[in-house]
Fold:
Amino acid sequence: MKPLFMLALMAALAPVVASSQAPETYIIDPYPAGKPGGSNVNMSLVKTLGFFTSKTIPSVVSGTGRGLYLYTSSSGELSGRWVRSTIDPVGEFYESSAAFLKAGDTYPGVVASRSRQLVWYSNPINRGGDPSQPWPMVIINPYAGCHDCVSGMWIRTDCRTSCVRLRRVRVR
Structure:
């Protein structure tokens, strides 16, 4: 009986799966800022998707060998023009980063590995500030960045962050 049920379920879902659209690709910045030392290639080493400035349109944080940047859509559409602003103009960003929503905040900040340190950037929009200006930074671990400390982020199908878990790190 169970195999028959599974067969019926698959047959019922087949038209839905077959008609689903392929995900679209959006180029946010074809020439991201920053070239890693000794390289002639622009590259983004750290990328984090989150709702940093809006509850409906996601924005992107991109870390490079020469700074951390926030990209927001100026048109309110994913396909629209994306505007880059600077969160931190210096520092080498590598390994991993995550959107981190501190208790009491509406919009997440960013936890990232920066120049061999683990840091947290507090989103200024939560205090009435301008997120297009550099963000305040708090050093979590001054002695080492972390490639595995920032993990456990799940994103539901509506792209809202469900859970961010930090291992071996406590932010107050």
Summary: Confidence is low (pLDDT under 50) at residues 1-9, 151-172. The chain has one domain: 44-166. The longest strand covers residues 93-100. The beta strands are 46-50, 59-64, 67-73, 82-88, 93-100, 109-114, 117-121, 137-141, 150-155, 161-166.
